[in-house]
Specification:
Number of helices: 10
Structural class: alpha/beta
CATH architecture of one domain: 3-Layer(aba) Sandwich
Bound molecules: adenosine-5'-diphosphate, zinc ion
Strand content: 5-15%
Shape: globular
Distance between the termini: 16 Å
Strand order of the largest sheet: 2-3-1-4-8
CATH class of one domain: Alpha Beta
Radius of gyration: 17 Å
Length: 222
């Protein structure tokens, strides 16, 4: 099954995508993670992308679209994939349609996560990520702290805060872009009848794990 994960920053999009990926074996393709790995390794793509990412701006399509197209050429996407962080604009959605059409594929499901804005800002500010690029585990100092402060439970590497998570300016910019450019995608895909919207919020005591569990049940037809 080919899935797009949607949701503003701090909704738990990456967490839900990760759980579904683990349970189904379909790879989680996170454009943000691919960029960060390239930045870490100092590749040409990483150096270019970092100019935009550090400011909270979108990386231009001339860089992002071919990167995703290449990733979708890899064999592990044959049975299915979970796109996490792409597409982010109607333009990117149209380009994705073209890429998939050439492969005789299509998107089967769009999972749209919603969370009250105050909650998402709080979550972004308290988010910590594993510095080991092969691990990339995500923690939250309030909701899901590591067992030992500052250390990843899974691999023992130090936890860090993403640069774009520590700058209020970058956070606001990203949320602004989400509202103006990314959220219209919900309507784009609703017209195709494939959107599943789920609220993730402590307010209703429903977190990413609950949502992921329900979605996996649905996929497995239980
Ligand atoms: P967040 O959703 O918290 O912004 P991501 O890890 O998804 O974090 O992305 C980090 C940054 O990478 C984004 O702010 C943006 O600069 C860049 N990026 C990721 N995906 C895309 C995309 N589809 N198009 C353009 N830029 C992207
Ligand atoms: Zn780790």
């Amino acid at each position: 099954m080919n899935i797009i994960m949607m949701g503003a920053q701090g909704t738990g999009k990456g967490t839900v995508a990760g759980i579904i990926s683990e349970q189904t074996g379909w790879p989680q393709i996170s454009t943000g993670d691919i960029f960060r790995k390239n930045i870490e390794e100092g590749t040409k793509l990483g150096i270019e992308a970092n100019n935009y990412i550090s400011k909270g701006e979108l990386v231009p399509d001339t860089i992002t679209v071919p990167m995703v197209a290449n990733r979708l050429n890899e064999g592990d996407t044959e049975e299915g994939f979970i796109l996490d962080g792409f597409p982010r604009t109607i333009e990117q959605a149209k380009k994705l349609d073209e890429i998939l059409e050439q492969k005789n594929k299509k998107i089967d499901m769009v999972i749209n996560l919603t969370t009250p804005r105050e909650e998402t800002i709080e979550r972004i500010l308290t988010r910590r990520v594993c510095s080991n690029q092969e691990c990339k585990a995500t923690y939250n100092l309030v909701m899901h702290p590591p067992k030992v402060e500052g250390i990843c439970d899974k691999c023992g590497a130090p936890l860090v805060q993403r640069k774009d998570d520590s700058s209020r300016e970058a956070i606001n910019k990203r949320l602004e872009i989400y509202d103006s450019q990314t959220s219209p995608l919900v309507e784009y895909y609703s017209n195709k009848g494939i959107v599943r919207t789920e609220e993730v919020s402590t307010r209703i005591n429903r977190l990413g794990l609950d949502v992921a569990t329900d979605i996996i049940k649905g996929i497995k037809g239980e």
